[in-house]
Amino acid sequence: MNIPKHIAIIMDGNGRWAKKRGLPRLYGHHAGMKSVREVVRAAINAGVGVLTLYAFSTENWNRPKSEIKGLFGLLKLFIKKELSDLHKNNVKVKIIGRFFALPIDIVKLVKEATEKTSKNTGMILNIALNYGGRQEIVDAVNKIITEGVYKKVDEKIFEKYLYTTGLPSPDLVIRTSGENRISNFLLWQSAYSEFYTTETLWPDFKKKNLMEAISEYQKRNRRFGGL
């Protein structure tokens, strides 16, 4: 069975889910956390090697302060509640993005999660926090310039300086809520990814929806520019 080694998800539609129900946006984010829990477990059971979730982008700082505070609160709650279970399931937690710019308590929890699961050998749960694809590329270029080791850089060398170094590029990128934008997500890594979009809002995206996306992926013929 052709299961994608790496699935990346743009989790979109929390706000619209809440609005449709006459609820504050934060209720949508809370409901979205339940989908995260279910989809992570479904990915583990399906045999996915890496699951990358777009949790907080560099552009999300433009949202109201109250919403940002609420998002961080939910993130802390998720890590505290789920870390033990993730560890028991041999999941390795990784973080990509400029997460050190986040509040100190978030950074502390993130470090705890990555350190506790660092020796696990199961699925990698790769969380994009304060992440931006353009920023990742700029950061990589600046690291190369600062080190001054290479006179010439090829793709393999460049990839070593990305946040995702050591991880395979995503085979499948999923975006929920009917949007068809990549939104500054894994710009370099998704060059040959298969894209799957669904009208389903993220809080309604469950195991069944993930398996439908994988099933659709299995029907694709990936040519990588060839015949």
Q: Explain this structure to me?
A:
This protein is an alpha/beta fold and 227 residues long. Helices cover 44% and strands 15% of the residues. Helix 1 packs across helix 2 (25-46). The chain is globular and about 55 Å long. It has helices at 14-20, 25-46, 65-88, 104-116, 133-147, 155-159, 207-219; strands spanning 6-10, 50-57, 92-96, 124-131, 172-175, 194-197. The protein has one domain (6-132, 170-219): Undecaprenyl pyrophosphate synthetase, CATH 3.40.1180.10. The longest helix is centred in the middle third of the chain and has 24 residues, at 65-88. Strands 3-4-2-1-5-6 form a 6-stranded parallel β-sheet, sandwiched between helices.
How many structurally independent domains?
Answer: 1
Q: What's the CATH class label?
A: Alpha Beta
Strand content: 5-15%
Say which CATH homologous superfamily is assigned: Decaprenyl diphosphate synthase-like
Q: Please state the structural category.
A: alpha/beta
Shape: globular
Secondary structure layout plus pairing:
Elements: E1 6-10, H1 14-20, H2 25-46, E2 50-57, H3 65-88, E3 92-96, H4 104-116, E4 124-131, H5 133-147, H6 155-159, E5 172-175, E6 194-197, H7 207-219
Parallel strand pairs: 1-2, 1-5, 2-4, 3-4, 5-6
Quick overview:
This protein is of the alpha/beta class and 227 residues long. It is built from 7 helices and 6 strands; from the N terminus they run βααβαβαβααββα. The protein has a single domain, classed as Decaprenyl diphosphate synthase-like (Undecaprenyl pyrophosphate synthetase), CATH 3.40.1180.10.
